[in-house]
Specification:
The protein folds into 3 domains: 250 residues, DD-peptidase/beta-lactamase superfamily (Beta-lactamase, 3-Layer(aba) Sandwich); 103 residues, D-Ala-D-Ala carboxypeptidase C, peptidase S13 (D-tyrosyl-trna(Tyr) Deacylase, Chain: A, 3-Layer(bba) Sandwich); 80 residues, no CATH class. It is 29% helix and 21% strand. The chain has a 5-stranded antiparallel beta sheet, sandwiched between helices. A 5-stranded mixed beta sheet has the order 18-9-7-4-19, with helices on one face.
Length: 485
């Protein structure tokens, strides 16, 4: 029997001697009372990362809960195993005619295959490589092939009625700049106006060049702009902007998402001095065309870091769909869920959680703290552990956990993936204790006041990082596996 499996079997037998409902540590009980969160609203686990000892804390660990963005832990670690940390997305570029005297006598095709990091700077690089082939004018069209993902109609307002929130941007096989725009506002020296710049520029979309300044305090400056997106090709800013705010950036999901990629490609091609005889449109690459350029993404390990550090939903969904695309030939939610379920059964030897879209931006996703603990212990024993842990936010230091435990004297002692939705909040990850031990920590609330769990998390991180106390616990599993090496 592999070493980790033997250790967990022994710890499970030992833990089974204790009651399932042990008292919570006094510090945690006090933090819950101050937060006015009932014990029944939270699930809490603190367990040895190697699984060699019974858990120090095991509260409602078997209950299936909504994990919010903590679901990204499963998506990203499964991808690291199934694809490998050095794996890259490729975006092939094809032509269907000769290039003579700087003119492509035909169409240019760009085939999306799910790259989550085709941001405006990298799109610029791709188009510059096209120009490096000697193309200054395209006599035909630029055709965008987005067929690798089969998603059906998408409604960015479906989740919470906020279609312009950047976190609601929807996945796309040819995802340009996260399917989002950013409005940059910069007060100018004269003190009367602020310059407005949209990134990326979108062909055919008008944005005011300036907005009047006001001397009001920098409060809810977004509301003060009185932005009107009802006409996606003509964004209006009918209000003012406080000079006291200084330069600010306002990220938004693209007001017209279905045309965002084509508008961005056209604007950037023309900005680079390229000419176009036709149009930028959606279509399919004809059979038999061979790529003249194969544009590669950053390595998966780098992409996973962006997903987990900053909890990027659309990047996580791109990765989730890529798992189905790579194993089944088409990126569908149903196919990717099947891949994830099979991976969980094969690696963790247990019934899988309820997967939805890979990002946690879901009301259907379900997992228990016990399952998260098994996942994190499995990852800890994996050769991929360094890449995985390096992708998690450091408490009190960076990413979405930069404020976690910062005021509690525990800055830097934990790597924690955060998650939050309406009625859901929590963390899961690893804590480095004062005695050198490493613990898995899971703390999630499903409750109308779930956001109040933050001081509870801070108290739990401090308690976990301190000297270990003898704490009875329930078993995790008698069949937690060792990662394949």
């Amino acid at each position: 029997m592999p070493r980790l499996a033997r250790a967990l079997t022994a710890s499970a037998v030992l833990a089974s001697q204790f009651a399932l409902a042990q008292p919570l540590p006094a510090e945690i009980e006090a933090a819950l009372a101050r937060a006015r969160l009932p014990r029944e609203a939270v699930t809490l686990v603190v367990a040895d990362a190697q699984g060699k000892e019974p858990p120090r804390l095991w509260h409602r660990a078997q209950v299936q809960i909504n994990p919010a963005s903590i679901a990204k832990l499963a998506t990203t670690f499964a991808a690291l195993e199934l694809l490998g940390p050095a794996w890259t997305w490729t975006t092939p570029v094809m032509v269907d005619g000769p290039i003579r005297d700087g003119v492509l006598q035909g169409n240019l095709y760009i085939k999306g295959q799910g790259d989550p990091r085709l941001v405006v700077e990298r799109l610029w690089q791709l188009l510059r490589r096209v120009q490096g082939l000697g193309v200054r004018r395209i006599s035909g069209d630029i055709v965008l092939d987005r067929s690798a993902f089969q998603l059906g109609p998408q409604d960015p307002a479906a989740f919470d009625g906020e279609p312009l929130k950047a976190y609601n941007a929807q996945p796309d096989a040819l995802l340009v700049n996260y399917r989002a725009i950013v409005l940059h506002l910069t007060p100018l020296g004269a003190g009367q106006i602020a310059a407005v710049q949209m990134e990326p520029a979108l062909a055919g979309v008008e944005v005011p060049a300036t907005v009047p300044l006001t001397q009001a305090p920098c409060g809810d400056w977004r509301a003060g702009l009185r932005a009107d997106f009802s006409q996606p090709t003509r964004i209006r800013l009918d209000g003012t902007y406080p000079a006291a705010c200084g330069p600010r950036a306002w990220p938004l999901a693209a007001p017209e998402p279905t045309s965002q990629a084509s508008r961005a490609v056209e604007a950037l091609w023309r900005e680079l001095g390229g000419q176009l005889g036709g149009q930028v449109r959606d279509g399919l690459v004809p059979a038999g065309l061979v790529p003249v350029i194969t544009f590669e993404s950053p390595a998966l390990a780098e992409v996973v870091r962006d997903i987990n550090k900053f909890s990027n939903n659309v990047m996580a969904q791109q990765l989730f769909l890529t798992l189905g695309l790579q194993q089944k030939g088409s990126g569908t939610l149903a196919g990717s869920r099947e891949v994830m379920r099979q991976w969980w059964r094969d690696r963790l030897k247990d019934e899988p959680p309820q997967f939805d879209n890979g990002s946690g931006l879901s009301r259907q996703e379900r997992i228990s703290a016990a399952q998260l603990t098994r996942l994190l212990q499995y990852a800890w024993a994996s050769p991929l552990m360094p890449e995985f842990i390096a992708s998690l936010p450091v408490a009190g230091v960076d990413g979405t956990a930069r404020r976690a435990a910062a005021g509690a004297g525990a800055t830097g002692v934990a790597h924690l993936k955060t998650g939050s939705l309406r009625d859901v909040a929590g963390v899961a990850g690893y804590v480095h204790a004062a005695d050198g031990r490493r613990y898995v920590l899971v703390a999630i609330a499903n409750h109308p006041d779930a956001a109040a769990i933050r001081p509870v998390v801070d108290a739990l991180v401090v308690w976990t990082a301190g000297p270990a106390a003898a704490a009875p616990a329930a078993p995790i599993s008698s069949a937690t596996p060792t990662p394949r090496r």
